[in-house]
Structures are given as C-alpha cells and as structure tokens.
Input
Amino acid sequence: MRISILVLLAVVGATPAMAQTPTAGSWPDAVQRLRTAPKARLARPRPRSATTAATLATIVDEREPNDSVRTADSIALGDQARGVVDPAGDVDTWFVDLTAGQFISVDVDAADLGSPLDATLVLLAPDGRTVVAFNDDFDGFDSRISYHVPTSGRYYVMISSFGRIGGSPQARYLLNVGLVTCTAVGTEQEPDDTPGNATPIAIGDSGTGHLCAHDANPVGDVDYWAFTGQAGTTIELQVDAAKLGLLVDPFVALFASDGTTRLAFNDDADGSDPRLQFSIVTTGTYYAAVSDAVGNNGNPFPYTLRIRAIVPGPGDPITLRAENLGFPLGLAVGSTGDLFVGDVGGNRLLRVPAQGPVTTFATGIPSPLGLAFDASGQLLVASRDGTVYRVTPQGQTTRFITDAAFPFWIAVASDGRIWLTNVLDRSLRRYSAAGRLEAQFDGIPIGGSGPGPLALGPSGEPYVSNGTEIWKLVDGQFQRVLTNGVVIWGFAFDVAGNIYVPAPTAGRIQLFDRTGAVLADPFAVGPDAPQAVAFGRDATGTTVARLFATDPLAGRVIEMNPAGVAHPGLPVGFTAPFTPEAAAAGLLGGDGLSAADRQLLDAIGNHNGRFDVGDFQAYLRTLNGLPGSTP
Output
C-alpha cells in the first residue's frame, strides 16, 4: 500500500514522519522489527555502488569528548575517520569544510570490521543546528549520506547508534568522506537523461545501470531506455535494486512515443522495487524511465531493468474515459450513467458524462474519499475533515453524518441504510437512511489496517478490506473471504458475486470468485495504480457489464475492455421497498406501512419526523430515477 498511501497523505496535507522514523504498521516499522533478528542478516551479499570517492589521504582518530558541534573533531575530504561509539548513547561529531557545488559522500563501515554498531548518520548545516541529510541502514546496518553542497562552509557529521541506545567498546567504525564521481555502469549509455538520448533495449532483454545524481537537479538522475513495442503486446517492466541488498527506493515510468505522455508508473510493487505491466495499443517506440524517489540527494546505486512480454488479462487493453482530474480517488456512478469522482487534492467532486466535457459538480469538501448515492439520489461523500457530506443533484452540499472522526469508505444498501468505515477507531458502522447511528462493529480483530474500502455483497452483507484481505460481516461477526499478496482498495461485485479488486501497488486489477478463488490475475494490467472500481449504468440506471477505475497517480479514469467483463455489475444503492400505491395509502391513513417504512420515507423527503405529502413527492421523484420504474 505504500506508494498510494504516501501519495494520499501528501496530497491531503497530512504531515508524514521523516523517512527514517518508523511508524506503526509502516515499512520503516517493518525494518525496525528486523533489528531484533539475529545479526546473521549482515552475512547477506553487500553490493557496493559503482560510484567512487577520492583516494583516502589520511586516517584520523577521534578524540573524546566530541559529542557536540562545539567539540567536534576535524576531518577533510579524502580522509578516513576512525572511532568507537562508546558508551551507550555516545555521539561522535566531526566537522568538514565544503565548497558549494561539491557532491560528497559520507560513508560508514562497521560491519566489515565485525562491529555490532547499527550506525545512524546526521549531516548538519554550517549553523550547527539544521539537519540537511540523514541516513540509517543504506548498506546492511551501515549508513551513507550523499549530498549536493549548496553553500560553502563548515558542515558537521554526527554518528551514533540507532536510537542512541547502543554503544560499547566493540562498536568500532570507519567514516569515509570523499567526493562522488558519477560514471556509466553496466549497459546504460550516459548521458541518457532524456528520451532523445535513451539507451536502446529490446523486449525480452535486461539492462544494467546506475542512478547517480551528477548535478543539483531536484529530480535527481533519470535513466531513459528506448524499445519498440508491437500493438497487442502486453509488457512488464521490472527494476531490481533493493533486491541487491541496498535500502533504496527506485521507481519506473513508461512513456509513449512522444517521450512526454506518461502511460504507467509504479513504485514498490516488489518491496521497495517497482514493477509495472502495460498493454500496447499502437506499434512504436516507447521509453522506460528509471529514477530514485529520494531525488538528487539520494545515495547512488546500481540497478537492473528487465523488459519482457507477458499474457494480458481479459480486461485489457484499457481505454481512457477522462484525464487531468487531479488526484481522483473515490468513484460512484449516477442513475443516468454519469461517473462522479472525488479529487482529493482539489477538494472537489467532478462529473464525468458519457458524452461531453468533465465538469465540476461540487466544491469545498476537504479531501473527498468514498462516494455513494443515498436513497434520495443525493451523493454521500466521506471527507477527511470527519464529516459525511450530502450533495444534491444541483451540487449543493450539507453536513450529514458528523459522529465518525475519520469516515473513509461508504456504501448504501437496498433498504437505504448507510454503511461506513471509520479508520480512526477502526470500526464498521451502520446508519439509518436519515443518518442516525444504528450499530457499530469493531474491526480491530480483522487485523491489518482495516476496515477500509467497503462494498456490499450479493446478499447485502458488507465486505471490507483490511489492506491485503477482504472480510465480510455475518451476524455481527467478521469472516475472512480472501487473502491477497498485494494491497486491496475500492473493490466491486458483479451479479455473479465475483469480486473485482484494484491492486494499486501492483498496478493491476484482479478477479476473484465469491469464495476468494482467483479467476483472473491479472484481470487487467493496463492501469497505473487503480484505487477504486465501479460498474457503469445505462441511461435508465440499470447496471451494465462495463467496469471503470480511478487511477490517481495518472489523474485519470479508465475503462476495462468490455469484452472481458463477463457479467453486469451488482446493482448498488437503494431499491424501492414498496409501490407508490402503498405509500399513497399510508399517507391517507392506511396500515400498509411499518414504522420503519415511514421513517425511511421521511429520510428520503423533508426530515421533519413524520411521513407527509412532501415525503411522498420526494419518494415519487426517487422512483422516477430508479431503473425500470414507472411511477
């Protein structure tokens, strides 16, 4: 889930922790847990970056005390410092004079000495306070910082044990300080930082390269590879770098023949290494771009790019429904077939019609997440501000549900009841059609990070994702339906009970049957990082066999190949529970309506606590928008 969640947090304005500060459930947390594993982990192959530093001129021994900027030891470019982190909590500080424009490397060697030190490096600006670079565990437990010097001056290097909890007479280290030299490595042909000078490669081959930010461009080093793709071919691009034993984070993007139109992107499909698939529609030259998520101050590292042909899924090739949508996440389909999308970054809702341009439907909803239409045909929107908003067909918004601290995903049942996941207390909630809380179910026992994305199954029971699993609620208890190897976001059902699962970190959509057995993996490999899927509806509101998905990193909505969609989607939302005649009789004093029926009609209508003429008129308008209705 990492790429999509990190992007989402960045877009909605959350403040993520520093990259090396573990948070519960995050990938740094997993790395920290590895620290408790046996030190045999250090015996794994430890490849070195092909980047070189200047020949070491002098070995400098530390002199205690040197635990502050004021008492720092001196070291020069090209020197090797030698020291010991002792006692526990000890910090060794070194200063080095640098010149603007230099690209330096500060590298710790401890494991090679047989040292137990798990070193952490910090580089401070000339003011002695501002942290300009930080690293932990670049090469095994050894750390390395690479840094483009923006301003001449005296900089300070601080080395300590991770968390400043370790240290002993055996915690020895060598600290190498030198200039970075970027050179071509492997089969790549530098310069190759634009499509115009891309290194050629063929489908079925692999290439080796080296990411090294040779200048101060904030993007860092970008290596382009050019290949010819034939229409009808589905390809896979895979980058191996973290697999080589380095704590790095490369990503890969695929560009069209013009060199600027991005077709696909991936980060972290295989741990920290990226992998993407794409179905080629037009024969021509395509470009694979490999870069580093850290940018120009990342440590140089080698990588291998593999390009191969694979078997496409039945949902390939995809087609573009709408683009330039900002960061589209949630997706709902209206009764006339229009798509409604929440732009998380733009705090707005967009309408994507079958014909004509995309229009702004509503604004002012902070970070819209899950979307669903309620019994009255109004759009419910879960927002990061802790509110579920209700949006009229004219785009007017009001606060509707306000007691869920972090509403995430939302679904409306056939009886008009509303199901909602709250990620703050990790609960699944059920509300009346009027927005009154009826029941709450603890989702903590399902584990993972759920309950998150939500959909209602063929029998009306709620299904939720906990990250890599789907669970359903049966008689108040959660039951596991399927376990997946990758992250599951906003899924959907067809009328046969099959589950279409978007897997954003893997860049594909998967298809499972109602028991959790795989029917097609991939179902479609064309999407970039699909987050939510939904079945289309025709002009009468009937759900059809057309599947759409939001693709936030590409800012678009896409459609799977309709020829590969075997069944229409499961109808979603409200279904009329009684005829207009029964409602009219109830209005005139008949006893055909229950108290719950009257409450539902009031929720559809004017919310004044009783069933009256205004509610009846609203019910007739609702029926007029339902498929097959003739009120």
Observations:
- The first helix runs from residue 2 to 12.
- The chain has four domains: 54-179, 195-310, 319-564, 580-624.
- Helices lie at 2-12, 27-34, 580-587, 595-604, 613-624.
